[in-house]
Amino acid sequence: MSAQDAAKRETAATSEVDAKRSRADQPKPFVSIPDNFDGYALDSFCIPKHYEDSLERILLPHGIIMDRVAKMARDIVSDLEYEPLTCLCILKGGHQFFADLVDRIKMLNESGPLSLPLRIDFIRAKSYEDDHSTGKVQIIGGDNMESIRGRNVLIVEDMIDTGNTMVKLLATLREYEPKTLRVASLFVKRTPLSNGYKPHCTSDRPSNTYPTRASPLLPLLMSTAFLDTGFEVPNHFVVGYALDYNEYFRDLPHVAILNDTGKEKYKMSSH
Ligand code: HPA
Ligand code: MG
The complex's ipTM? Predict the structure, then answer.
């Protein structure tokens, strides 16, 4: 090959990498549930009898969640194309979203044309008691984190609320120097307690309009960890689809708003 051809080939390869990177950096659409959205009556859907008295309304029926997860999987696969990916499940709340998202990525791998070699791993990051943040994050099961060095990593989380858990987790994971870090969170809550970590996404409605308490780490994290969001939700405590209140409600298929009876009945101190 002539030096000229080699240079041409290198330029083409570089512009392909650039094109891929800029495609991956494009904001992705997400669904924003407005504050005045009423949700659905409990008796419109099947819910476990043991939770009937503890829920206000259904915010998102299971089927809508599944449809949104399918699209999130497609966005991830089309951004990464053939690149190997480690999906890191944040237990326990992320387990259902993780299982369904990985299932969808596997289905896309089977049907082509793109496919991503997948690895999976599981960690816990615990920060909640009752329905308020304790302000501390405990990372459990981080022993195997050397395995993410040089890899594309997708952190799969159920919910970003204050953002404190994710900011701390990203800072910790960055120490292992993964090739890329990306976060898929099924829910992002619109809350005045947000530290400002929010979706790199577009929506037909304005995103978090509350003033935020910015974390000093934010500019760095926002520029290095793309955040895919399923749904931006109003400032309610929601349960179901593996999201819990003191370990209850993970077995509810839909995402619903917890009522005062539920908060009292399943309070930490009463168990
Ligand atoms: N539900 C369950 N877990 C949570 C929530 C929520 O609304 N916010 C933060 N962790
Ligand atoms: Mg929880």
Answer: 0.96
